[in-house]
# Entry
Amino acid sequence: MSVLAQEQSLEERIQAAREQVCSLHAELTRYGLVVWTGGNVSARVPGAELMVIKPSGVLYDELRPENMILCTLEGEVVPGTPGSERSPSSDTAAHAYVYRHLPEVGGVVHTHSTYATAWAARGEEIPCVITAMADEFGGPIPVGPFAIIGDDSIGRGIVSTLRGHRSRAVLMRGHGPFTIGATAKDAVKAAVMLEDVARTVHLAAQSGQLQPLDPLAVDALYARYQNVYGQSGDDRREPPAPITPTEGSTDVPRGTAN
Ligand SMILES: [Zn+2]
# Structure
């Protein structure tokens, strides 16, 4: 947890997550990653066994911090909290599974963005052929198994593909991308960058042979970008949030967290 988060009460951390998750959905529409009510962003509440996620089937223009939904890391809505009268995103179980099994993850994003989903439709990993991919993902974007909503199978597929992998993006076969990040903003950035490289590499493949980068160059680019590029305050430079929740941290104040 960041220094700021450590100074906040649980209620303040939940409210900050509500505001962040709500505002980050605007980035999905800004970058053309979603249509209608598709796509979803979630954030872990630092230091608690809780997450905040978008409601199911609500138009983007109607999203507000108070209609984001607070859930346990089992994907259950916390009753009596703002927004709890609605159902959470249909992908909640997948997000919750990721938080339970990848403690370093603070945010998860799912879209059906066009070019990334086209690669998923072919079940083909995106080869690392441009420096932007080496920088951001450290290699190819892997394909995860085909899985349908209804149980933990999407979450299992995401975790088994991304655990120990540099990539923060997975293309779920026949479905579309999920991205993870140290924070929800970091996961949204990965979703935006993924669609950008998916489009570029798709276009390149239409007119010639793709030329994968030398793995040594990929390693060097990735190391530089993760450690030197940008600002020292970037989300991924912060130490990962500890996952030892304080006792009673799921005991959410009812009706006071808006
Ligand atoms: Zn989907």
In short: The longest helix spans residues 184-207. The chain has one domain: 3-229. The two ends are 22 Å apart (CA to CA).
